[in-house]
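Recap quiz, item 2
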Amino acid sequence: MTIDGRQRGLPTPPRLDVDLDEADRFFRQRATEDPSAPDPKVRHAAAAREFSERGVFTHTTAELEFGARVAWRNANRCIGRLYWRSLVIRDRRHVRRADSIAHECVEHLKLATNGGKIRPVITIFAADEPGRPAPRIRNEQLVRYAGRRQDGATVGDPRFEAFTRWVQSLGWSGKGSAFDVLPLVIDTASDGTAIFDIPEDAVLEVELSHPELPWFADLGLRWHAVPAISSMPLRIGGLTYPTAPFNGWYMGTEIGSRNLVDADRYDMLVRVGRQLGLNTDDERSLWKDRVLVEINRAVLWSFDRAGVKIADHHAESERFMAFVAKEHKAGRTPTAEWSWVVPPMSGASLPVYHQYYDESVHLPGFLPSVQWEP
Amino acid sequence: MTIDGRQRGLPTPPRLDVDLDEADRFFRQRATEDPSAPDPKVRHAAAAREFSERGVFTHTTAELEFGARVAWRNANRCIGRLYWRSLVIRDRRHVRRADSIAHECVEHLKLATNGGKIRPVITIFAADEPGRPAPRIRNEQLVRYAGRRQDGATVGDPRFEAFTRWVQSLGWSGKGSAFDVLPLVIDTASDGTAIFDIPEDAVLEVELSHPELPWFADLGLRWHAVPAISSMPLRIGGLTYPTAPFNGWYMGTEIGSRNLVDADRYDMLVRVGRQLGLNTDDERSLWKDRVLVEINRAVLWSFDRAGVKIADHHAESERFMAFVAKEHKAGRTPTAEWSWVVPPMSGASLPVYHQYYDESVHLPGFLPSVQWEP
Ligand code: HEM
Ligand code: HEM
């Protein structure tokens, strides 16, 4: 896997300990933003009481909702934050069996997919408790494609080759196509590591074609509709929820400028360039830049035609500017990482490029992805 | 002027004081890199002696050369640093009259232009001394185009409207075209503020046309061959040289993705988009991205055809990676600002994107541009 140069800021180290001071700050923050919140002093006393008995305390569902939405608002790398208030929260802290967790992930995908009118959703499973580790999803996203080395080339997504070998060692096989959806892999204290296929009807996919280039469809490219990150622990008011998959809708460039074109992903630049009749030996002809435009057009056009919600980087940049303005208006300082919110193509043509951002990190928030290891 | 979001790092405040400790570090650094350098202890003693007599000391020409080259090597925002050793240094510390300085700038341009085979050159004028302020060039670059409001629109480069009004108040008029080269404005203690036209034969320009689109030439676009920044003080070993114009060659995107397209510069996106027959009301068609590619192709193609050296962002990114590798090999940690070295288009398709950089700032170096004020 190549390094992603954008991850310059040192990520906050995962905070997994139960922290009553952080809880206190959270209860007070909520009280300033949410009129229905209880008196933070009273609330904190109750949490402290519970903590002294059990070594942990419990968020109310309302706290979970507020916390998850603010975690999104605080996601410095996310350009899509304008609608942070609309996040749907599924409180599944009581679900602990591996098969039930897999079932809830499938339900999450269906609810989020919504026939193409994608909804931002988060499903929150149990917090870590002393002596009672929470269940964990080992997938980076709920939907990812397998990658297999075959005759010196990779079929599928090279980024998940090692992960694919691992799930194969756990008994999974898949069809062998370039777009085989990987199974969910779930660790629980009671069941160990278990794998679950995601039913086909839970994974909406879009076949890619191009508004003007008929041969584009013959490339056999497709992508799934819902990006649902499942590897980032969620930290709310002094507790960590290690398993809290969340999704938005895609911004086209994620697929068209990264997943399908990065040299260590589907690496389609040369193939599409040749089909376009461009001289792919002459970098100075800007054939790569041209191909990027056409692949991204295909992505947006195909999703639109299939009725699947997707953002383009121009509109999303403008929405992000609206988010920044709204945050200022609410008396808050919006925070962001420039290198992440600036999309991976046509940077300077977008308003997000021409802005400074406060890069400080606030909680509640999503903690850095737990990197998969076998 | 819109903010350029890339300038996130707080710039070092200009260091204008004479600093013997910094000189000491510089003499020692030079001794480790340059076998011909004198013993740094002996050299420092001599500088200290001179300082105790005059309140300042003098670099040797060899020190100036080493210092200027290392300043380029340390330019964190510059993608073009692979050839830092090749910088040609013109030592003009003795030149103090305004007209002579203007003359030297013109000579700089001619030497740098070199009939299109552009050479990286720096001309270093006097350092500030106590009680004897050094001359100053008020232009941001030696070659910039005037901008004038006319009937609610701007003819020329909107970025230099205020500067243009100012030089007009000093007696300059210009032809009134969209590409009128501004005069040099030079401040000296003896002559005050004086303006000097740059002779036409010192400013090589390239008329822009497109390899496939004949109408492109009719847009009447052109750009000058040599980007020569004249607003950044040069700090070498304890002394500041406020007037030290330097140039490289252009990277195409500077012209094709910024100067000609930024909304507060020549703002050509919509015009070219309409000519291309694209629907400029539909952002989602990625017409802007498409237009960017075509303008950048025109820039590279026209410079190539005119025999004027220009880099494309793909090759320049690869050269920058070679620079990074070479620095490591030399036992140094290369430093860079990610948001500056990643070009303003097709970011993720370039190797520079997929790297972390140490952002620390080292001397010798160029200090932040002195912003022009009337
Ligand atoms: C609603 C539509 C959404 C859009 C268009 C959007 C867009 C994006 C994009 C383009 C990125 C950068 C991804 C990359 O380059 O790898 C990103 C990152 C991120 N987004 Fe969003 N997002 C959306 C919803 C959400 C939601 C609902 C959440 C959480 C509740 C969220 C949290 C994050 C986080 C934590 C990251 C950083 C991921 C990482 O570090 O790898 N986003 N988003
Ligand atoms: C030889 C070819 C060169 C190329 C292709 C090149 C390329 C670039 C580019 C693309 C930028 C960013 C400009 C912007 O986006 O505004 C830059 C910035 C810079 N370059 Fe270079 N450069 C070259 C030579 C030089 C030389 C000779 C020096 C000094 C001796 C230099 C020092 C700098 C500095 C100080 C900056 C930052 C400017 C600022 O802060 O506005 N470069 N260079």
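The pocket of protoporphyrin IX containing FE (ligand 2) is lined by residues B 72, 75, 77-80, 83, 87, 120, 122, 232, 246, 248-249, 251, 254, 311, 316, 340, 366, 369 (CB under 6 Å).
The two ends of chain A are 16 Å apart (CA to CA).
End of item.
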